[in-house]
Design goal:
It is built from four helices and 13 strands. It has 180 residues and is an alpha+beta fold. The chain is globular and about 35 Å long.
Length: 180
């Protein structure tokens, strides 16, 4: 089971979108080198206000490129990096992965999936009505967040568009992703 990296993005300042890059460097236990959300402790503004000492489970944000096709059908144009993700993938059901899944990105980098991204009001600030497209309901009526997953860096390395993504599922019972 695997896919590819479609794009990589980072930003050294707080901004909703992140510009695409030729490559990003992942640093173990830290995140994306030079990215505002990198660090061993939480860097998300709202979470920092609550408790700045909590561990950063949101070091690398990944979104599946297929989401852009889905929202395009509803009349929205979204490109890689515009929802604040660091890594855009193709060919992997990111939202269906269990907690603890390892993703090998390129030749060296490995991230561990920690949970779902909590979509925030900034999504509607980016494009009015888009939030409704990234928060949906599954067949049983439960709320389903579609704005990507979060991870921590286990092994550092350089990640580039076109790199393969290999998926390694965790042993034991698979736990569904929850918001982190």
């Amino acid at each position: 089971m695997g896919g590819t990296v479609s794009a990589v993005s980072s930003n050294g300042t707080y901004s909703f979108t992140k510009p695409n890059r030729e490559s990003i460097t992942l640093v173990a236990g830290f995140g994306v080198e030079g990215d505002v959300h990198a660090g061993a402790t939480v860097k998300h503004r709202f979470r920092m206000e609550k408790d700045p000492s909590q561990p950063n489970l949101r070091q690398v944000h990944l979104i599946h490129e297929e989401l852009f096709d889905e929202v395009r059908e509803a009349g929205f144009e979204v490109a890689a990096g515009e929802l604040g993700e660091n890594v855009t993938t193709h060919g992997i059901d990111l939202l269906g992965l269990p907690k603890g899944t390892l993703l090998r990105l390129g030749e060296e980098a490995v991230v561990e999936v920690t949970g779902l991204r909590n979509p925030c009001a900034q999504i509607d600030g980016f494009q009015k009505g888009l939030m409704k497209q990234v928060v949906g309901r599954d067949e049983s009526g439960r709320v389903r967040f579609k704005s990507g997953i979060m991870s921590v860096v286990v092994t550092g390395g350089v990640v580039r568009p076109g790199d393969p993504v290999e998926v390694e599922l965790p042993d034991g019972p698979h736990l569904p992703l929850e918001i982190v």
